[in-house]
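Minutes, project check-in
Item: structure for the 400-residue chain
Input as provided by the requester:
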Amino acid sequence: MRSAKLPQPVKIRRTYKYRLYASKRDKRLHQQIDVAGNIWNHALAVQKRYHRLTGKYINKHRLMSHIARMRRTERFGYWQLVGSQAVQDVVERLDKAYMRFFAYRRGELSIKTGPPRFKKVKKYKSFTLKQAGWKLLGGNRLRLNGRNYKFALSRPINGNIKTVTVKRDQAGRLFVCFSVIEEISNPQVEVSTGKIGGFDFGLKTFLTDDEGGEHLSPECLKANLSEIGCLNRQLARKQVGSNNRRKAKRQLVLAHDKVANQRRDAHFKLAHQLCDEYDVLGFETLNLHGMKKLWGRKVSDLGFAQFALILEHVAHMSGKQVVKIGRWEPTSQTCSCCGHRQAIELQERWFVCNECGLEIGRDHNAARNIRREAIMMLGVGASTPSLEGVRRSEMIASLA
């Protein structure tokens, strides 16, 4: 008898981010990030000047050789404060930015992308070390460019470390990020609840499921808006370039960071709750840029895009499946009972079918239609493995 094939392990790239402990040595790391910013601006200036004179683009390897020669001169000797591989990474970042811009100009990218720009040195964020320049000393101790540092080891590092990145946020805090290659068993789609759910995003109700349940958003920005407004006014009263202005700006950045952390925590909790309850989750893609033009801050506060990414990650790690429905499907205009399609205005929050007389909430009706579309996509053959043991015919019959 032929033995069953075991699931093969999958290599994934994962990033572990830790906070570096504050000390007097942080000044050196800030200086290294500033030098990386100077190298970025110099490389960009060379590219622009070369294009203006010849109309051509400098290959990244030629640009790396040029930067290496400049580092050996007396004028730019301070560039040796960062390692050679960190310098190469800066040039590679610039080259990737130009490649994205060229791809957009050729029509290969739909997202509008402009050419790379000069950056203020104090706003430059990070530098990356690859094989050399770093070493783990055990526990929460790390050596960077010949100096030892400590970081908050909140979780163990699993896998083979490929790169180490030192990042600086707008508040001046330093973090160390380990990019690792980790082998995990390929999570198969498991049948734990046998439920397929459809969900509709909304402004008043964050999520509405096909059973009529509502999941509200904490709207963290709205809850902290008075505090952020007060900090903005305090910053506006400070003299430009003063230490008090720098302190006020840091307080404002920390307030925004608090809001972002609260929103991310709420999204992770909701994602785990849905993945524990459903095996397949159907969602409709949204035109977020168009929604921001209409409703602005409200859409940004809800964070639909971030929640979608978090949900896909949690679903993948827990062996669940996320099915995306096209944005052009008329889920809000189609009756979930008889399939009759009729126009409905955006301000109408209640759907009344002209054929069968069904009266149902607009979002509830859309969630039921999204669930039906998700089941049809699974029946036709989705790109990811379908559920085993789920009686789709009974589910489809239950929708009628």
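Outcome recorded: The chain has eleven helices and 14 strands.
No further action items on this chain.
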